[in-house]
Write a structure and sequence with these properties.
The chain has six helices and no strands. By secondary structure, it is mostly helical. It has one domain (about 1-170). The longest helix is centred in the middle third of the chain and has 35 residues, at about 50-85. The chain is elongated and about 65 Å long.
Length: about 180
């Protein structure tokens, strides 16, 4: 019994740490990516940035994916195990169910974004990026912020909400609420 409880605590800590690193790193990567655009415009490129500066931002954005995607994968691993270990407690601890469901919403969104990151990273690793105007940059970097611009913020909001639920634990039946409702 104690080993199950310790396993659950360990997985919960891994989940929270993975989500914090993923969220923080993803926000930093987004700031790096949006640095090449003029603020408050429809993704209009800054004219004072050279092609090399833009390409450097793309490289920084791509290389940061290694950290964020690994931490997301670790959090996903922990979340899946927690889902199965805690499934009998969903009725009394609603925060667990809601936290895990919010995380599950991020899975398809982040999986597609991971695909784009992996393709961009492969181009970076094999030194295929020579210019900002290449197809690889347009297909896997610019498309991410034009065609898929709703996915990352949606994943961030669901991930942050999941993290908040896991840390503050609302919707948990306690002795106080049981005494108010007459449940024993």
């Amino acid at each position: 019994m104690a080993s199950r409880k310790n396993l659950i605590k360990f997985l919960a800590i891994i989940y929270v740490l993975g989500m914090v690193i993923w969220l923080g790193g993803s926000i930093i990567r987004t700031v790096i990516a949006y640095d090449i655009y003029v603020p408050a415009t429809e993704l209009q490129m800054k004219t004072n940035y050279s092609d090399e500066m833009r390409l450097h931002n793309v490289r920084l954005f791509g290389m940061g994916a290694l950290y964020t995607e690994i931490s997301y994968g670790v959090a996903a691993f922990a979340a899946i195990f927690l889902f199965f270990l805690l499934r009998k407690e969903f009725k009394t601890k609603g925060w667990i169910l809601i936290s895990l469901l919010l995380f599950l919403i991020t899975l398809p969104l982040e999986s597609l974004l991971m695909y784009y990151d992996i393709k961009l990273n492969l181009a970076i690793q094999y030194d295929l990026l020579k210019s900002f105007n290449q197809d690889v940059v347009r297909d896997y970097f610019i498309s991410r912020f034009t065609k898929l611009n709703f996915m990352a913020p949606s994943a961030y909001l669901c991930g942050a909400s999941s993290l908040i639920m896991a840390v503050w634990r609302p919707l948990e039946k306690t002795e106080f609420t049981n005494s108010l409702t007459g449940d024993e």
